[in-house]
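Q: How do we represent a protein-ligand complex in a form that can be generated token by token?
A: Start from the inputs.
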Amino acid sequence: MKYRSLLFSLGIAVALATFAKPSPRWVDQKFSMFIHFGLYSVYGGVYEGEPVTRGYSEQIQSFAGIFSDWYANTASVFNPVQWNPDSIVALARSAGMRSIVITSKHHDGFCMYHSKYTDFNIVDATPYGKDLMKELAKACERGGIDFGVYFSLIDWNYPHGYPISSHNADPLTPQHYEFNLKQVEEIMTGYGDISEIWFDMGSLTPEQSRGLYELVNRLQPGCMISGRLGNDYVDFAVMADNEYPEYKMGMPWQTAASMFDETWGYRSWQERGEVSPKVEEKIASLVKVVSRGGNYLLNIGPKGDGSVVPFEGEVLHGIGEWLKVNGEAIYGAKANPFHHSFEWGDITCNEGSLYLFIGELPTSGKIEIKGIGGTVSGASLLSSGKLLPCRLRNRVLSIDLSGLASEEVLPVVKVSFRNGYLVLPDPIVKREALTLRNAMSLFGHSSLNYYAGYKSLIGYDWAWQHRPGRHVPEIRFTDQEVGRQVVVEIGGTRHEVTLEPTATTRVTLSPGSVLWGFLYRKPGRGVFGNVEEEGAGEVNPKRPGSRWTEVTDFSYGKSYSEPILPRESVVFLQEIESLAQQTIAVKLTSGNAAYVLLNGEYVTAHFSPQRIEKQEELLLLPLRKGKNQLVVKLYNGFGNVLHYGIEPLEEWAIHTLKLDPVRLGRQEFQRVSLRANGIPASATPVAYSAVSPLRMNNVSISFSASR
Ligand code: H79
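Then emit the structure tokens for the protein with H79 bound:
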């Protein structure tokens, strides 16, 4: 429900609205099976008697350089007689999985279903001769679990498409796009209810993403669509393979994971090791994902004969054993309600209880959780029911874990409360204005395609400690936000407003108060958005061995450019020294995608689905006294020139818009939120969806008392 109202409030009716989404059933799947099965499974990662060690085994055609006619001939020996869809469903169920997602077609173009539009499919081209995907869809229905499909947007077998590339992010020719539409239509109409469609790879135009999105929506309004369709046409975000976010997501999402990072498709020579450490690793990942609000899609890669690799079957059984005991903490549970993570492990919750997954027993034998209100009625170990001493005093919950057996895999402690509980927000803002820095930010995962996917900031929430009485809310913003439509919610009252100034003040930079330092650059790692992991916020460019180099032909106020290839990125680091703590304004020039951090903290990130080559924006930068580092990662999706520029402003406008007064009672704090409302004119006809970045980092809200 929460997501649904969020979707409405974002006003994305134009392109994305469907009333069935997000399907609550999908959101509560939590744990599902991914199956990579196709012609590549026959090779099992071996070509001409040699293991192919480069790349994933499902892409062996590409990595071993197999001629397309030779590869296609594999179909004549593809006869998965050991494939038993009912036992696959039984395996998924015993693992505690709620759905199965199978590769209908991978990059090789071979269809695991009976396609009318190509003979390169399991019915027409193999001795097996049956529609394997239909068998699985029916078995899922019999077994009472959901069925979904993976669909590769690229296709190495389609004659009018792009040839094999190193990156798999090729555009779709108009004919290929039509072909995909027809295939998706047959999948959506011939295989019963499809719980999700996992589009993957390619680099589509916004119109193509939209066409496929609308087609699926029309044929199966409840089918959840993966964000890898691109251009922010998305029902659920897909994290990078095997990864999960360390931040609060405001939308449905999923992490897909393989048993071993090296491959998804069957690899006969994979060194698998012991089962139990793998079971523990995957339980830990499942918990990380679910405690952050996502679904975990764990892959198996059956052999060419259709049998399940015994190791993979055993791992799934092992996870299922753990879930039989601890499932209460997973299914129906919600994400960690706190605004931070914990060293000792993870948390999920429901209305009356918290579930603590104890990853690491603290040496003290005790854990303490601050910021909870309520009356605790007890803590017990989910596996045995054993009671654990606990108390809640002064809003600190402490639990004595010294009685926990250390050999149990990820023990779960259930903490129950008498009449629910309250988690105190963090931070609670006292006298200051509400800004991006003291907000509890909500993130999405915006993606242009596989490579240009990043953490997008989609909303600000605040907890504001106020005095009872009447207050006049004042929204402050810059020229950058004039005309934007927003929803500001204060203590449950919605204000839908357009940011038009009722008053304006001009702010001038105190002369000489900022020393503009050198600019350094280094090549970015390919995928846009890893900049925090690259540790750019703490880098010392002068350290020997540093990859940073000084950009000598850069000057402030002038646009700097250099040649760049598509899918390449560059990280710039700008040294700024301020004589005082103060907020300054700059004009930032960037290319078609930018990610901005000030002193290691997220300021803004965005790309241009319209593929604008050079864009300018005004940014307020809250500097601290002393040295500051502005880090801007520029990603080049399209074109061959990279643009960058910083123009310090000596004067800028701060606009104010007063809202109607609000009357507030005696609560401890008030919840305030800021969201976008509607589509910025600049974004049409491109989707502006629930994951598109808010780009309101310059906006702040303050309150003045009124009589
Ligand atoms: O189906 C699985 C992959 O085959 C597919 N997505 C998952 C779910 C996928 N196709 N392409 N990609 C993922 C991205 C390609 C990454 C690559 Fe590499 C970078 C291919 C070559 C360099 C890393 C190193 C992966 C293979 C070798």
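The CA atoms of residues 34 and 299 lie 4 Å apart. The pocket of H79 is lined by residues 55-56, 58-59, 168, 200-201, 241, 256, 264, 450 (CB under 6 Å).
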